[in-house]
Write a structure and sequence with these properties.
With 187 residues, the chain is of the alpha/beta class. The chain has six helices and seven strands, in the order ααβαβαββαβαββ. It has a seven-stranded mixed sheet, sandwiched between helices.
């Protein structure tokens, strides 16, 4: 049912989460890190895939919306960049080969159910390179948030012990509390 709702949002207009602008947190990371291999989970229409590819990254993007992936492919062609764009489930990444220097998720993880979050997190150890960075933007629990969002600590615990939080920036997105997490391998 959720997939149908996403397909309809892409069919009948711009999805509110798809701003067409790469966030400053990603741009700051790109400005201070050399290009490598990147995986964009829940890539939508490919805004960040194109940003990464333009900066020399070898990018794979995955989204479960066929309409979003079609739009991402068109965006990549129009931008004259190459990217591996796949329609698939971010909680089942058996078809994706690591390691990646950067794994990016802007707003996908927090919409998964508990079992899918566990499967998703289980992929990180295999996919993230030894010195890789996982950037995650997610809504987090607070008194005004709908039930189902994890707290900052619960989100961090989902990826432990394979990944450790290296930084958290709290903020607000539209109506909900949100956070940018930077994960890496434990020291």
């Amino acid at each position: 049912m959720r997939r149908t709702l996403f397909e309809l949002r892409y069919l009948f207009g711009r999805a509110p989460w798809d701003t067409g602008i790469s966030p400053p947190e990603l741009l700051a990371f790109l400005g201070s890190n050399p290009a490598g291999r990147a995986l964009d989970l829940g890539c939508g229409t490919g805004t960040n895939v194109v940003t990464l590819a333009r900066r020399g990254w070898d990018v794979t993007g995955i989204d479960f919306s066929t309409r979003a992936i079609s739009a991402a492919r068109a965006r990549a062609r129009a931008s004259s960049v190459s990217a591996d764009l796949r329609c698939g489930d971010v909680s089942d990444l058996a078809m994706i080969e690591g390691p990646f220097d950067l794994i990016l998720d802007i707003g996908c993880f927090h919409r998964l159910g508990s079992a899918a979050q566990a499967r998703y997190a289980g992929n990180m150890d295999r996919l993230l390179g030894r010195r890789g960075v996982f950037l995650l933007y997610a809504f987090v629990a607070d008194p005004t948030a709908p039930s189902g969002f994890l707290s900052v600590d619960q989100t961090a615990a989902r990826f432990a012990p394979q990944l450790a939080v290296q930084g958290v920036e709290l903020g607000k997105d539209r109506r909900y509390a949100a956070a940018w997490f930077t994960f890496g391998r434990p020291a």
